[in-house]
Amino acid sequence: MNIARWLEASARLAPGAPALLTGTEVLADYAAFARRASGVAAALDARFGIAPGDRVGIFMANRTEYLEALYGILWAGAAAVPINAKLHPAEAAWILDNAQARACVVAADTAGPLAAAAPGLRLIGADTGEWHGMRATEGSATPAPRGDGDLAWLFYTSGTTGRPKGVMITHGNLIAASLCYPIDVDTVAPSDAAFYAAPMSHGQGLYTFVHTRMGARHVVPPSGGVDPDEILDLAPRIDGISMFAAPTIVRRLVQRARERGLTGEGIKTIVYGGAPMYLADIEEAITVMGPRFVQIYGQGEAPMTISALSRAMVADRAHPRWRERLGSVGVAQSCAEIAIADETGHRLPAGETGEILVRGPQVMAGYWRNPEATDRAIRDGWLWTGDVGRLDADGFLTLTDRSKDVIISGGSNIYPREVEEVLLEHADVAEAAVIGRRHPDWGEEVIAFVVPEPGRALDTGALDRHCLERIARFKRPKAYRVVDALPKNNYGKVLKTALRAEVEGEAGSGPAGG
Ligand code: AMP
After folding, report:
1. Which parts of the sequence belong to the AMP-dependent synthetase/ligase domain (predicted)?
2. What pLDDT does residue 247 have?
3. Separation of 456 CA from ligand 1 center, angstroms?
C-alpha cells in the first residue's frame, strides 16, 4: 500500500483539522494538505515526467513545504530522497547522482549552491511561484497504487565513516515502523502535534506518517531547527508536542530549561536516541523536566525501530533496577526480533556481548545499487547492525559500542562507552569521547577527549584517580586531551573517525596495561 493513503484517509475523516503549522499559525487543514500533495504529484508528472518508481530529492531545511513535497512525491508513486540541509552542496550532489534522482525540491538558500554543484539536475523551488502553481494543479483523488515492497524513501546514512549508502526503505517498511510508534513509543491523539526541530530528512521525518494517520498537527518552528528558547516558549502555546531529539539536543534543552526555571510545559514527549544518552544526562533531564522522555534505538536500516525504553521505564525511579534499565536502550519494539551473535553468527545467550542483529518487517530492502554491502548487512534475513551489545534475562538491550569502536589493549576488549560513562560522572566534565591509539606493546591504548563544564578547569590527575576508583586499571585513559568541543556530524553524533585521525601516527609509550 502507498503510505500516502494515510493522508488521503485523514483528509476524508477530518478535512477541517489543522494539519500544517509554522509556529502557531495554521497554514493548511487536512483537506488542503491532501489537495496540495495530489497537486504536486500531478505536476511532477505533467511538468517533469516523474513516473512511479522515479526518485526525487528534497534538499531544504524544515518547513511545511517539505511535507507537501514529501507527500507529493509519494502520492505520485515516486520515492523521496531527503537530504540533510546542512550537508555541503557537493555532498548533496553526490547523493542525488548516486540515487539517479530525476529532480530535487530546493529552497531559496539551497537552490544556487546545488545548481552549481549538480549542473543539469532539474531543481524545483519551494519558494517560487512554480511551487504554488504545482500544488494548485488538479490531481488524482487517490495516491498512485504502490506495493509494500516498492521504494518510498531512499535514506542516505549519515556516514560517520566513508561515503553514505542509500538505504532502501519501502512503503511496507514505513508502515511497519509507523505502527510500532503507538505501541512502543507514545500514543498519538488528533490534538497532539509532531514538532519538527530535528531534521525532517532523518528520524523526525519518519514520525510524520503516524501523526498524519491520526490527524494530528505538524508544527515547524519558525527557525526550522533547534533553538532551545524557541522550543520552550512555543511548547505551552501549541501544547501536546512530541519531538525527536539527539542526546546533545536534549542536553541543551534541559540546560536552558533549568537556567530559566522551566519544566517543559506543553511538551508531551521527547523521543531521544541516535547516539548514546549518558546516565548523568538523562537523570538530570528527568529531574528538570519530569516524565517526558522515551528512548528509541534504531538505525537507517531499521528506521527508529529496534528497541525502545518507555516513558514509565525511563521515569520509574522506584524500580529496583531503574538505573540499570536507564542505561539500556530498552526492549525490542513490537515489530523487531533481536539477537546477539559472535562473528561467526553463532547466537549468544543473555548476558554475553556480541553484535546486535535485528529482523522484522521494518528492516530495509537493502542498499541502493550496492548488492555487496546489502549481502554483508543482511544475512539469512537478519540485519547485522554493526552495534555491539548484550541482552539481559528480561530482554533489555544494552549497547556497548559500534563494533569498530571497540578498543583492544593487551588483548582485552575495552568498550569506550563504559569509560565515557565514568568520566561523565565527574562534576567538571561536560562531554567525553574515548578512542584507541596505537601502542607498540599493547596494540592500542585508551585516549580520552574531554570537554570541561563551562568555567571549570580540568585536572587530569583528578580524573585519573576518579577512574581508578571506578573501573579496571587497564580501561582507564592513559592520556587526556582537553578540548573546547568534540567534532560532531550534522545529527550531533561524535565523529570518532576525526578523533582517531587526530592521534593517527602517534604511538603511545605509556604504561598501557598499568
Ligand atoms: P543512523 O543510521 O544515522 O540513524 O545511526 C544509527 C546508529 O546510531 C546506530 O547504529 C547506533 O550506533 C546509534 N544509535 C541509535 N540510537 C541509539 C541509542 N538510543 N543509544 C545509543 N546509540 C544509538
Report:
1. 8-368
2. 86
3. 30
Of all protein residues, the one whose alpha carbon is nearest to atom 8 of ligand 1 is: 274
Nearest CA to ligand 1 atom 6: 299
Nearest to 185 by CA among 335, 300, 273, 308: 308
Cα separation, 229 vs 219, whole angstroms? 16
Q: Tell me, in angstroms, the distance from the centre of ligand 1 to residue 246's CA.
A: 10
- Mean pLDDT value of segment 249-278: 94
pLDDT value at residue 509? 52
Could you tell me the three cell numbers for 324?
540499570
Please give the angle made by the CA atoms of 505, 510 and 514, to the nearest 5 degrees: 135
Compute the distance from residue 9 Cα to the ligand 1 centre, in Å. 32
Pocket of ligand 1 (CB under 6 A): 157-158, 273-276, 295, 297-300, 329, 385, 387, 399, 402
Residue 161: which pLDDT band, with cuts at 50, 70 and 90?
very low
- CA 149/CA 211 separation, integer angstroms: 22
Centre of ligand 1 to C-alpha 347, Å, is 22
Does any domain span residue 112? yes
Query: Given this model, what pLDDT does residue 464 score?
Result: 95
Write the pLDDT tens digit of every residue in 380-436: 999 999 999 999 999 999 998 776 677 878 767 787 888 898 899 999 999 999 999
Tell me the pTM: 0.86
Residue 513 has pLDDT above 60, yes or no: no
Residue nearest to atom 20 of ligand 1 (CA): 276
**Domain-ending residue, one of 269, 295, 326:** 326
Asked if 122 and 43 sit in the same domain, the reply is yes
| Nearest CA, atom 23, ligand 1 | 275
- Domain boundary pick from 326, 349, 377: 326
pLDDT classification of 79: cutoffs 50, 70, 90: very high
SS3 label, residue 54:
coil
Q: Find out whether 297 and 328 touch, Cβ atoms under 8 Å.
A: no
Q: Within a 13 Å sphere around the CA of 511, how many CA atoms are in the beta-carbon half?
A: 2
